[in-house]
Amino acid sequence: xxxxxxxxxxxxxxxxxxxxxxxxxxxxxxxxxxxxxxxxxxxxxxxxxxxxxxxxxxxxxxxxxxxxxxxxxxxxxxxxxxxxxxxxxxxxxxxxxxxxxxxxxxxxxxxxxxxxxxxxxxxxxxxxxxxxxxxxxxxxxxxxxxxxxxxxxxxxxxxxxxxxxxxxxxxxxxxxxxxxxxxxxxxxxxxxxxxxxxxxxxxxxxxxxxxxxxxxxxxxxxxxxxxxxxxxxxxxxxxxxxxxxxxxxxxxxxxxxxxxxxxxxxxxxxxxxxxxxxxxxxxxxxxxxxxxxxxxxxxxxxxxxxxxxxxxxxxxxxxxxxxxxxxxxxxxxxxxxxxxxxxxxxxxxxxxxxx
Length: 355
Hints:
Blueprint (H helix, E strand, L loop, with lengths): L1 H24 L3 E4 L39 H8 L4 E4 L5 E5 L5 E8 L2 E9 L13 H7 L5 E6 L2 E6 L2 H6 L2 E5 L2 E8 L4 E9 H7 L3 E5 L10 H25 L6 E2 L1 H17 L12 H7 L6 E8 L4 H9 L2 H7 L6 E7 L2 E8 L3
Parallel strand pairs: 12-14
Antiparallel strand pairs: 1-11, 2-3, 3-4, 4-5, 5-10, 6-7, 7-11, 8-9, 9-10, 13-15, 14-15
Keywords: Membrane, Transmembrane, Transmembrane helix
InterPro entries: CAP_assoc, CAP_dom, CAP_sf
Protein name: Cysteine-rich secretory protein family protein
């Protein structure tokens, strides 16, 4: 009996040692929270469907889903040369197609491979759903879950979506490494736009809270000159998407204004450098004073600001879903728009000019 007891003690000790060694050698689970300046409105609560271990069977017939993994040559052969190429804050280039008043698309090219596509407008090739589909219709076709997983080698990641995420930008996994973000207009409860991305592209942007085991990809660093080029691209994207959103609401096209864009840029830069987020600067000046300082004549003016959104499309969808920002974006009082971006601080200045 004593011998048996000794054997059992030895086995227990061995098991404890094994557990300790395993835990020491295993990667810890970590959580990254990337906070964006979303403005929460009173909205109905949407209950998530939970998590799913297996991918659902989805018949994705629309052409938009097929671009991930294709080359820049395949893109230009099909759609022609882009209207411009914008650099991004994530080392890929955006091939921008903006020659239509009713459609707009950005294709992210990294090492000659498409890793993300953002599209907004009418008649998008996104079957089995349609442009402007109702929230319920899309939710019935695609599973909206509060946890979406991605595995890359020995690293595993879980994107965690809160209630606001599920309402405004649910994430759907359509293959082992490809995901769709559906952006919804919560005022009309319809699909506003969509983005298809690889898991790696999502990890760079970090639009959701991430729980992970292993290593997150390092985000690139840039000098001031490189940032300026990135910011100019985001300014043009904000301008383009603003006009598509206005078109969808039967509003006239806004004209670009260089002087007003400088006013907007200075405010974005001031917010970043002085670590605040407000329409009123630390010296007490508001939009009126900033326009007067640059001797800008106007009969009506409005301003939208945002911070910490990963890129221009995300900031635009945030403005669309905030009542006060939406009023400025979709106002018929304005005919000109200036956009200024500094790092991830965004400012829109809208203007109605005297005749």
